[in-house]
């Protein structure tokens, strides 16, 4: 990695674009690896230099505040942080000048990485793969979109290290090399505030496969319509392994008799029983389990370790998380739900939901499927909140309304209080918003913790 950093920065005018957690990680490794390197840090925060004394070091200049993107065209190499979007700017920049921590990391360790992406399920799946592999060998690392900058791993990597990366569309958009094992779980409407279109978002995700070589593996979910259509339009060099929920022909992951198997060129490997013992709930998690088992198998993890890892893995916070029974009522926190498909899956997983809290920041997602679903489940009491909730309720009313008259309460905390109140004794209340949290929270984790605190009080 350090030699690669010296090579790509040598003789170039370098811009570090964005100075959050990843930007700080990038600066640290660059300063350690490239003695005498001069670079510029650009960030929208006008006070970034005041907050970070390391930016006053020799060789570092800072461009911050409203015009932080004004001089972006003057640089030869732009190391972009994932959260920065060019959507609503007039900036036209040569994509070949744009790199990132993810791009450089994938180039440095091409044969050691399993990268997991998808609109939903990537944190659970990448964490599950890590848990399985870690139970077999300690020489295993997990980082990426899950909250750990990839460059933070560099001191701990040797040629035998297995690396699992959770990768967002923002991280993948400008990569030049794909991971050795790439997983694309699904594609739903998301991040439309960041991309010019849903197609642009899908193409950012697909870079994980498009930038692979012939010796790499691409795992994808066969019943995901958007992925299937995208792969018809774009041919991959890598070896494809579709994931099925039935018996299947050819290469892939699916059922054979009483087992889930991995089949490659006619050779079959048993991964798991058809219904493995696991703490993960729901049909969507059975797909995640199949993907994780196959990925671990491709990383040479034996079947007993795979089975044990799936059995002992504990679900992540904010994902259909059981909060507890309070006042004779059961509460579940599914704050990770930022799209309608996730809310629908949560209701189906729990089977009996009496009260559902929906809404948040409105990113223009199509809620037609969700309103149709709500009309089928007429017994659910629905509390809408936030701008997205207001639009959901309006669309539901336009579609003929709901048997249990839904309510709209703009304030999230008041909406939760109302949901608690109307949930019947012995009933279940579910927070699964189908919308982003940015109307009143920094992220879905903060929203989930707030919900749990309100419930417990």
Offer a quick outline of the entry.
The chain is an alpha/beta fold and 457 residues long.
Question: If you had to describe this structure to a student in words, what would you say it looks like?
Answer:
The chain is of the alpha/beta class and 457 residues long. It has three domains: 2-96, NAD(P)-binding Rossmann-like Domain (Rossmann fold, 3-Layer(aba) Sandwich); 102-312, UDP-N-acetylmuramoyl-L-alanine:D-glutamate ligase, CATH 3.40.1190; 321-456, Alpha-Beta Complex (Protein-Tyrosine Phosphatase, Chain A), CATH 3.90.190. It has 15 helices and 20 strands. The protein has helices at residues 2-9, 21-33, 48-51, 101-108, 122-136, 169-172, 198-210, 225-233, 283-298, 303-312, 340-350, 368-376, 386-398, 412-422, 444-456, and strands at residues 14-17, 39-43, 60-64, 77-80, 98-99, 113-117, 140-144, 162-166, 181-184, 217-221, 239-247, 252-256, 259-264, 267-273, 321-326, 329-333, 355-358, 381-384, 407-408, 428-431. It has a nine-stranded mixed sheet, sandwiched between helices. Strands 15-16-20-17-18-19 form a six-stranded mixed sheet, sandwiched between helices. Strands 3-2-1-4-5 form a five-stranded parallel sheet. The protein is globular, with a radius of gyration of 23 Å. It starts with a helix and ends with a helix. The model has no long low-confidence stretch (mean pLDDT 94).
């Amino acid at each position: 990695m350090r030699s690669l950093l010296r090579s790509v920065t040598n003789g170039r005018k370098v811009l570090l674009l964005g100075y959050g957690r990843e930007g700080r990680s990038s600066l640290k490794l660059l300063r350690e690896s490239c003695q005498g390197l001069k670079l510029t840090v650009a960030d929208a925060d006008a006070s970034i230099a005041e907050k970070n004394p390391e930016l006053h070091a020799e060789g570092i200049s800072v461009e911050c505040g409203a015009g932080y993107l004004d001089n972006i065209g003057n640089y030869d190499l732009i190391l972009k942080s994932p959260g920065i979007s060019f959507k609503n700017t007039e900036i036209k920049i040569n994509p070949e000048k744009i790199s990132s921590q993810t791009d450089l990391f994938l180039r440095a360790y091409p044969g050691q990485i399993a990268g997991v992406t998808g609109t939903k399920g990537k944190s659970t799946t990448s964490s599950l793969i890590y848990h399985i592999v870690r139970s077999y060998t300690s020489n295993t690392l997990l980082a990426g979109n899950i909250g750990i900058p990839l460059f933070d791993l560099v001191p701990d990597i040797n040629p035998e290290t297995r690396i699992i990366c959770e990768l967002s569309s923002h991280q993948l958009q400008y990569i030049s090399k794909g991971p050795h094992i790439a997983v694309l779980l699904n594609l739903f409407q998301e991040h439309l505030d960041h991309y010019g279109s849903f197609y642009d978002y899908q193409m950012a995700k697909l870079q994980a496969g498009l930038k692979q070589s012939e010796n790499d593996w691409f795992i994808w979910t066969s019943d995901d319509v958007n992925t299937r259509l995208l792969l018809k339009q774009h041919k991959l060099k890598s070896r494809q392994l579709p994931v099925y929920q039935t018996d299947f022909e050819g290469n892939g992951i699916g059922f054979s008799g009483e087992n889930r198997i991995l089949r490659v060129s006619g050779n079959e490997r048993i991964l798991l029983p058809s219904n493995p013992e696991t703490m993960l709930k729901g049909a969507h998690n059975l797909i995640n389990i199949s993907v994780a088992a196959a990925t671990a198998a491709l990383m040479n993890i034996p079947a007993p370790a795979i089975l044990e890892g799936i059995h002992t893995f504990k679900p992540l916070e904010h994902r259909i998380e059981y909060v507890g029974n309070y006042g004779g009522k059961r509460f579940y926190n599914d704050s990770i739900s930022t799209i309608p498909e996730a809310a629908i899956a949560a209701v189906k997983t729990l089977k009996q939901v009496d009260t559902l809290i929906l809404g948040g920041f409105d990113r223009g997602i199509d809620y037609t499927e969700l309103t149709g679903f709500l009309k089928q489940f007429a017994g659910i009491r629905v509390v809408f909140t936030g701008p997205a909730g207001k639009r959901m309720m309006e669309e539901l009313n336009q579609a003929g309304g709901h048997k249990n008259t839904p309510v709209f309460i703009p304030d999230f905390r008041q909406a939760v209080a109302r949901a608690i109140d109307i949930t019947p004794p012995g009933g279940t209340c579910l927070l699964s918003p189908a919308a982003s949290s940015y109307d009143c929270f920094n992220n879905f984790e903060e929203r989930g913790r707030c919900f749990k605190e309100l419930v417990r009080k």
